[in-house]
Design goal:
293 residues; alpha+beta; Outer membrane efflux proteins (OEP); 3 domains; two-stranded antiparallel sheet; 2 strands; 13% strand
Length: 293
């Protein structure tokens, strides 16, 4: 966008040089005016060279991020103004970030894991009881003979006994080891909770800062658009007409033209700042899909 504006400015400067050259040839202007216009044209050309170098360097950086070879052709579609779409409200963005940001999800997972380990350590450190029930049947015989009361026959003397046992089995934890594990687990839980809370607080601060940047950039852009650009262009037209009528000097015209160029560059920089602030919001809120719209 800035290069396009510089190209338009160079075209206007060339027209001014041609116009002044014709007036000098007619004797209506001194040769100094032609030299001053030519100096201004070359100054704008030098500005274009530095701007093109900055764009080429940014494209090389972008190619590197995308894994594209430096010598392959690469072009960016769309206009900067078309990329400045609305963003979600700050409260909605903060809620989304808390739920979906990978770093916060990892912190919550670590907190849950620490809580599970803490519950396990506390469970292993408690007094545990187990109910036991048993049944036994014993039969004993003796090397003596006895008479059967029913048949009168002799038989070996024996005895049969039934036993039912029941009770409670207590498992006592080792005091030092279990208490140490439980204390370490509590500290780990607290640390994980603190890390998660700090991560959420940091995310909210980042989102708040990015919204402050975005809102200020939007105000600056609107000030340029409504209260600066149009008036600067009108001032340049008036000074140009007055210069052509002879009531203003060439230096006045050149100075006003430089102010106009500075104003347009400031507006373009304001647009870029809005885009960068919007991109920062989308990054901190984990909303990459909005960038592709």
């Amino acid at each position: 966008m800035k290069l396009q504006f510089i190209e338009r400015t160079i075209t206007l400067a060339k027209n001014n040089v041609d116009l002044v050259a014709a007036q000098v040839a007619e004797g209506r202007r001194p040769p100094l005016d032609q030299n001053m216009e030519l100096v201004e044209l070359n100054r704008i050309r030098a500005l274009r060279e530095s701007s093109e170098a900055a764009v080429e360097l940014k494209i090389l950086e972008l190619k590197n991020l995308l894994g594209v070879a430096p010598d392959l052709p690469f072009a960016i579609r769309g206009e900067l103004v078309g990329l400045l779409e609305p963003i979600p409200p700050e409260a909605v963005a903060a809620e989304r970030a808390i739920e979906t940001r990978p770093d916060l999800q990892a912190a919550r997972a670590a907190e849950g894991f620490a809580a599970a380990r803490g519950r396990q350590a506390r469970a292993e450190g408690r007094l545990d009881a187990e109910l036991m029930v048993g049944y036994q049947r014993m039969r004993s015989s003796f090397p003596l003979l006895d008479m059967n009361s029913q048949t009168g026959a002799l038989m070996t003397m024996n005895e049969q006994m039934n036993f039912v046992t029941f009770g409670v089995k207590l498992m006592l934890p080792v005091r030092d080891r279990k208490e140490g594990m439980a204390a370490a687990a509590r500290l780990e839980e607290n640390a994980a909770r603190s890390r998660r809370e700090f991560g959420e607080l940091t995310a909210k601060r980042q989102i708040a800062a990015s919204y402050v940047r975005y809102n200020r950039a939007m105000r600056a852009k609107e000030i340029y658009r409504i209260g600066v650009r149009e008036q600067a262009e009108k001032n340049l037209d008036v000074v140009r007409q007055m210069y052509e009528l002879g009531s203003r000097t060439l230096l006045d015209h050149i100075a006003e033209q430089r102010r106009f160029i500075e104003t347009e560059n400031g507006y373009i920089d304001a647009l870029l700042e809005v885009f960068l602030a919007r991109s920062e919001i989308l990054r901190t809120t984990n909303s990459p899909e909005l960038i592709n719209k």
